[in-house]
Amino acid sequence: MDSQNTKNRPKYEMIEEALLERIHAGDFSFDEAFCTEKMLSEQYEVSRITAKRAIEDLEQQGILYRKRGVGSFVSRNLPSDDDAADAPKMISLLVPFATTQGNISEAIGTLSAVLAEQGYFLSIHVTGSSSPKERATLELLRSQNIAGLVYYPKRDNIHLEELNDFMFAGRPIVIIDKQTDCPYLNNVVCDNYDGGRQTVRHLLEQGHRNIAFYTAAPLSETSSVRDRFAGFLHEMKAAGIAPNPQQLVTCCQELSNDAALSTERTPFQEQLLAMHRDGITAIIAENDRIAELIFLACRTIGLRIPEDFCLCGFDDTNVSRSLGITSIHQDFAGIGREVGRVLLAALENPAAETEKIILPVTLVPRSSSLR
Q: Among residues 63, 74, 154, 369, which is most buried (max CB within 10 A)?
């Protein structure tokens, strides 16, 4: 019976058990990599995916943490049976989209490693674009035994009433991506304002004057995009170009691959054609996802990039790199490190000063904006 149960158990669970036995026996060094996916896949004759699952499960428990390019290490603060009774060890992260979108996975990986070194682990909650779901998830987490909260709001509405409950319970909060003027909430963002300025300067150097900022997000509700547009306006005015309605274009429909690639003209495609007829020569998209859809739509309707439109985005995603789209690189790994540092400092000292951190950004020119 026992042999049958062993035979039916997932291989990753058996690897986890073997690794735990080694850890409990003290068969490791804190200063040397304990395991790698390659090592485990060869040792146990399993796929890299299976080895990765075993490592990730132990990371989630706060037992291992990963250093990119080196391997996984044993946490110096291993969770014990008494930990749950003494203090919560879970940090919860709320994000509005899948963790595979954009470069947010870099921030998550770095944050998870920083927390794991101190015996904390990360739970991830995807709320989508629904404000009610954000609120409901916050209310749910408020009732659970978590140590702190990292919150990436979809819009500027950060549900302050719910966040206040976390604060009064001694659970530190860090808001990422959106700047908040709330003086008692920690904030870690990239310099969206300077990103807007750098992108416009780049296009002005290429000889453009008729530049449009294209967004799918309402500026009144999205501080990150509002800051990018503010940087855009600053550089345009500095170049002697007065603000005019053509400089801000809001998308006319829900954007998707279908809206970009349809062989029957969509409102999105018609909008780009109208911008071209109006003399716009360069477009700055609010983010790389929008830039990618503009790139695909232009290719579908016969507009050339960069000949008809020069194109820039924000985020420097893998897709934008593959398409040759100029983009603003945000230090997502740095975001993860700073969020982890702020959280750990607040957990160690509940009276720690609130921190507002803005990380620098860098323009990465590519073929989409170079003629």
A: 369
Number of domains in the chain: 3
Q: Which residue has the tokens 């603003």?
A: 328
Number of residues that this document lists for the chain: 371
- The CATH number of the domain holding residue 19 is 1.10.10.10
Provide the 3-class DSSP secondary structure of residue 259. Answer: helix
For the entire predicted model, the pTM comes to 0.75
- Whether 82 and 123 have beta carbons less than 8 Å apart is answered as no
Amino acid 147 reads A
Cα distance between residue 311 and residue 83, in whole Å: 52
| Domain end (from 74, 102, 133) | 74
In terms of domains, do 35 and 106 share one? no
How many CB atoms within 10 Å of residue 235?
19
| Parent domain of 299 | 192-330+363-369
Whether residue 159 contacts residue 138, with contact meaning beta carbons closer than 8 Å, is answered with yes
Alpha-carbon dihedral of residues 366, 68, 355, 315, nearest 10 degrees? 20
Residue 79 lies in a domain: no
* 92 plus 176 within the same structural domain: yes
284-333 pLDDT, tens digit per residue, is: 999 999 999 999 999 999 999 999 999 999 999 999 999 999 999 999 99
Segment holding 113, helix H or strand E = helix 104-116
